[in-house]
Fold each of these.
Amino acid sequence: MTPEQVEQRLRELEIETPSWGYGDSGTRFATFPQPGRPRDVFERVEDAAEVHRLTGTAGAVALHFPWDAVDDYAALRDHIAGRGLRVGAVNPNLFQDPDYKLGSITHPSARVREKAVGHLLECLEIADRLGSGAQSLWLADGTNYPGQDDLRARRRRLVDALARVHSELPDGQELLIEYKLFEPAFYATDLADWGSALLVCQRLGERARVLVDLGHHAQGVNIEQIVALLADEGRLGGFHFNNRKYADDDLIVGSVNPFELFLIFFELAGGALPRLTIDQSHNVEAKVEAMVLSVVNLQEAYAKALLVDREALRAAQEAGDVLGAHEALLDAYRTDVRPLCARVRASLGAAEDPIAALRESGYAERVATERDTTQEIAR
Ligand code: RM4
Ligand code: MN
Ligand code: MN
């Protein structure tokens, strides 16, 4: 790839930032409220627009329902477009209603399953009204104790429910199915791994694809290989970026394991990019700054992946030159791509140094004043 082609591909990178990553979040021990935190979806979109203004690469915002529910979806759609953004994936929420204690679409009670399917169908309609291209579904369903429920029955309920949703998908929408090893269920998660998710997608049809979240695997799992495999099957629909040390930590992508991120991007860059979304929660760090840093880390990882000399790599692989091939990856990984990314951002009308520009802009101070939440903070 010529340097011009690398720059062009980098310019085309589009990351969805998550509306839920701008609000307050915490652990099960405490949530520390931050001054200036957005009070509603309109303000979450303002924050997303600021991240896009600084990085040039975060042009879409993923939404979560009912967290982002409003009465007037046309107004929300206009607000998003008015801030220069596109609506990303619509994420239903089947994990907070007390009815879902024992599961949502896998629940033993037909009434609860029906309610859950109703929410998924409602989200298809919301997505349609907002002009979103995907429903991105993560289920918290699972069991905590051996024998708690019939594992095969749960799987059949899950497939039946998703088949209904898939058959109702409006034109222009696809269904992304996300898996997760454990948590909140600690014995058996109903969609625990890429294989379970892929089998369900294959049962549903062409418009169902798998979404991989970096934090949803056991330690040591080779995630770039999962990317390669799903992409090869035409079933890689999306990717959730974050980083972790132990479990689903949702830290800033690239902060703990940048080499893994580079290897994932190398596989992603081998074909058309799937939907790329940040899925993080920033508990102690400044939220908008965290999102900007995440996008910058993604730009840099992608730039390095694009710089891999794929011809030299293939030649070394075919010659059986084990370390020559490995070196072809390391050469790209060791390149300092910061000047290249700064140039690309400048050409997009964004900031050469987005973090410095954010700090100089006074955005955090301004929203802290405008979104006066002192009363809530004092509580
Ligand atoms: C889950 C999963 C989903 C996200 C929720 C909030 O662990 O990663 O993608 O929507 O968290
Ligand atoms: Mn996720
Ligand atoms: Mn997660």
Note: The chain has 15 helices and ten strands.
Amino acid sequence: MSLQTRAQLVDGFQSGLVSSEGLIAHGRGEAFDYLLGEKTSKFSVAAIEAACCCLLTGDHPVISVNGNFAALCSTEIVRLSNLIPARIEINLFHRSAERERLINRELEEKGAKNCLGSFSNNSNIIPGLSSNRRIVHSDGIYKADVIMVSLEDGDRTQALVNMGKKIIALDINPISRTARTADITIVDNVIRAMPVIIHTISMLKREKSIEYMQDIVRHFDNNGNLANSLKLMRSGFERL
Ligand code: ATP
Ligand code: MG
């Protein structure tokens, strides 16, 4: 894993964007990236195409942002939200008003306008979840039909799926509960996946019809995608 990525997260931690738990989650991600050979696989490319089709055909797509995602990809998050277009909602597992404010500032520095979060004062509750992490914005995650999540927790992913939302997960661990519960899982490092997602969204908007995109989403097989990604990791073990 690149030292620069680690430095970005440590900077994010020191400036209050990233939680201490976020650093642990990143370490877990690095282990899986090692097995992927630190490369974007063809299965990830296929999942990215399906994810982009889903985002572009949604009525109300939302990008959910936490500390790690903001520390690693703020420029790409803002570009993606403008391109789709999709709302950005800051939604933290280890919630604090201060960390929300800092993440919002980081995104605004990259050009984001009107990010949603619990500071926006119009919240609603995800049913079936306890504690603060059930609080979401009424015009964001609560109303969304398609939500992109990254480094997400399995319980919340399940609760959002139970609400009937389509979930796109960026998760490099193909056996996490999030990866297995989501509708489309991009088994890749967010650092590598985000530029590919942006490129794919631009290409689809330019070249493909709504019908084409709906068809791709309808035929995407996430269990097959996860099994293929796992096989690739197993061959990573064998190679080593
Ligand atoms: P779950 O709750 O879904 O079972 P978990 O409890 O193992 O997952 P969490 O800490 O809730 O893990 O979520 C973090 C997830 O994000 C982990 O699956 C981790 O592998 C993954 N992850 C960490 N860093 C990255 C990264 N840079 N890119 C993509 N995924 C990452
Ligand atoms: Mg978890």
Note: The chain has a mean pLDDT of 95.
Amino acid sequence: MADETAVKAVLRAFRIELPSWAFGLSGTRFKVFGQPGVPRTVFEKIDDAAMVHRLTGAAPTVAVHIPWDATDDYAGLAAYARDQGVAIGTVNANVFQDDAYMLGSVCHPDAGVRAKALDHLYSCIEIMAAVGSRDLKLWFADGTNYPGQDSIAARQERLAGVLAAVYARLGTGQRLILEYKLFEPAFYHTDVPDWGTAYLHCAGLGERALVCVDTGHHAPGTNIEFIVSVLLRAGKLGAFDFSSRFYADDDLMAGAADPFQLFRILHEVHLAGGLDPSAGISFMLDQCHNIEPKIPGQIRSVMNVQEAVAKAVLVDHQALAKAQQAGDVLGANAVLMDAFATDVRPLLADLRAE
Ligand code: RM4
Ligand code: MN
């Protein structure tokens, strides 16, 4: 197995981005339970995220969601974050909560609604410049509930048109990250339901359009590490939204439901050199803490991701390749399982103390 020094070296450079919305109140459509001390403003969300970074040393950026985190002074927000020891990361655009978007946003049949959505995406790009953010993350709630409700093909065309306009507006060094999701809120078809659709749009746009894999956005049983490996090979993996699921997009703590899956995903990332910050892959949490306290929930998630990274780095690539080449099925599998079975918690505690 790789030694502890190698694991620590990777982890020292490995960064996890926190979502501002994980600190705000959230719930299900049945009930949102209040919690004492929940942030009321984006500034208070930054305070909480900064606390997570202070305690883990691994989460120096905070993703914002616009308009949830809208403010009239974005440069001030960036400065405030800096004072707390963190920086603003990804800007997530939100075109799903206006009445106008009932039938979609960027795929809406009405050009006026599409223009409204595009306008919002343009203002997100301006915010990125003001806060010094590299990534614009796009997730669309667009889709239909009934066969025949709208033309699937026409909606793809409209989507491509808006994406092209957004891409053309990006500044140097800025990236468009397109996120897919199988279903919900639309139940018949979703306009960006899977990695293939996201990849096709990104490939058509250019080098700075990349795919986001949200681990909660697939059908049960989907082999996510396969998708990750394919996207890495194509140079199109831009970001992760980590969370856990038991059923649908449950938004539970990363590594809580299936730590083995998280390990398998990060093993593929590591094999392709993607754990190195220079690979430009953003490792973000996208979670909601409905019943657990939020700051500890984020800390636990960060630790779970770090544990999976440590185990992925422990995999002996030489022994693995040798066993694979020799057709040694059990041997190859054992190389992975040995790394996964290693208790890396003392190592991580050590690293935090350092
Ligand atoms: C979506 C998707 C996006 C997130 C929103 C809140 O399901 O995961 O990444 O911004 O939820
Ligand atoms: Mn997401």
Note: The pocket of beta-L-rhamnopyranose (ligand 1) is lined by residues 65, 92, 139, 179, 181, 214, 241, 249, 286 (CB under 6 Å).
